[in-house]
Amino acid sequence: MMSIARGAAAALLLLLAVGCSDDKSAAATEKDADKVQVELGEEFTWKDFTVSKGWQLETTEQFIEMEMQDQPFITGEVTNDGDETAYAVFEFVFVGDGELQATIHCTSELELAPGDASPIDCPGFGQVVPEGYDLIQVQPISR
Question: What DSSP line would sit under the chain, residue for residue?
């Protein structure tokens, strides 16, 4: 009788372990689904929003810590393709040779009703202007 109970307990632990690993892989897959690789200036869709073709990575000069510094700035237009009124909120991540170069937070200037469009406001405060990058990814804001 005791060996049956031990066998049942072992089977339960095995099922729990398998269930947990499936939950972790599902969470990782869901997290990866929140990311999309994009090309500079090309139209892309992320979640319920489409950023129109022609978006640009620009450089602006700002007075920071008592000196003028170049900062990245992204301009473009975003459309709400979803069913609910919302702001578009995401970040662009620029990577070159496997190294993070810049993370630029972005939001629509307006709260968008379904079908509405707005300019995007993406100042790269505190970031270097990315150069020589080989990957641009759009994802939820990470911090």
Answer: -HHHHHHHHHHHHHHHHHHHHHHHHHHHHHHHHT-EEE-TTS-EEETTEEEPTT-EEEEEEEEETTEEEEEEEEE-EEEE-SSS-B--EEEEEEEETTEEEEEEEEEESS-B-TT-EEEEEEE-TT-PPP-S--EEEEES---
Q: Tokens 């869901």 identify what position? A: 30
pLDDT band for position 30 (50/70/90)? low
| Per-residue tokens: 16 | 């729990």
Say if residues 78 and 50 touch (Cβ distance below 8 Å): yes
What pLDDT score was predicted for residue 117?
98
Pair of tokens at residue 2: 């005791």
